[in-house]
């Protein structure tokens, strides 16, 4: 049973336009959400996160939106650049900073930004 | 300050052999996590270790797989009697005792295991 879902395996976007990557989750205990970016032959790198007490977090060109009632979050990249082409993993955890619970990852969305 | 170091980067084993994957966490990180990425799938949690302790191994297959994080040296993920279905990318991540505001991990570059 997949607790974190990314229903779009791939997405193509023109350079300069907005990329929107979607993620849904089923576990209502999740209260912290993360996005990771992964290039081929490299490990995932942390991109941006959001706590369930917020509905938006912005960092430069990257913004994550959380709709807790719908159990849905999205990552917006604007403007998209060719270097953004990568696999993006949505992830979630029910933990606080001082307690443990494993981070659960979605299957990933492969983003291609076309010059 | 080196990141999470995994070796080897690529490992080829014949069916029935043993595979040993190593992970050295970032300096100051005492928590290690192993994830597996099968082809066309996401990252699946396998095991969480602290020094000399296995904290959560709920994602480890019941047979042939084991992990350790000794007092000295890297964490080791060991797969005995490998089968073709074990072919995957294995990623190690580490974190400090308190994960900090991003609750995230730092990942290594992975070990790509191919069983022939």
Structure description:
The complex is a heterodimer of chains A (115) and B (116). With 115 residues, chain A is mainly beta. Helices cover 0% and strands 52% of the residues of chain A. Chain A has strands at 4-5, 10-14, 19-25, 32-38, 45-51, 56-59, 62-67, 72-77, 86-93, 104-105, 109-114. In chain A, a hairpin with a 6-residue loop joins β4 and β5. Chain A is globular and about 40 Å long. The N and C termini of chain A lie far apart (38 Å). Chain B has 116 residues and is mainly β. Chain B is 0% helix and 48% strand. The radius of gyration of chain B is 14 Å and the shape is globular. The A-B interface holds A 4, 6, 32, 34, 36, 41-46, 49, 89, 93, 95, 97-98, 100, 102-108 and B 4, 6, 33, 35, 41-45, 48, 55-56, 58-59, 91, 93, 98-110.
Structural class of chain B: mainly beta
Biggest pleated sheet of chain A: 6 strands, mixed
The helix content of chain A is under 10%
What order do the helices and strands of chain A follow?
EEEEEEEEEEE
Comma- or semicolon-separated keywords:
heterodimer, A: 115 residues, mainly beta, five-stranded antiparallel beta sheet, 0% helix, B: 116 residues, seven-stranded mixed beta sheet, globular
Describe the structure concisely.
The complex is a heterodimer of chains A (115) and B (116). Helices cover 0% and strands 52% of the residues of chain A. Chain A has 115 residues and is mainly β.
What topology does this entry show?
The complex is a heterodimer of chains A (115) and B (116).
Chain A: E1 4-5, E2 10-14, E3 19-25, E4 32-38, E5 45-51, E6 56-59, E7 62-67, E8 72-77, E9 86-93, E10 104-105, E11 109-114
Parallel strand pairs in A: 2-11
Antiparallel strand pairs in A: 1-3, 3-8, 4-5, 4-9, 6-7, 7-8, 9-10, 9-11
Chain B: E1 5-7, E2 10-13, E3 19-24, E4 31-37, E5 43-50, E6 53-56, E7 65-68, E8 75-79, E9 88-95, E10 106-107, E11 111-115
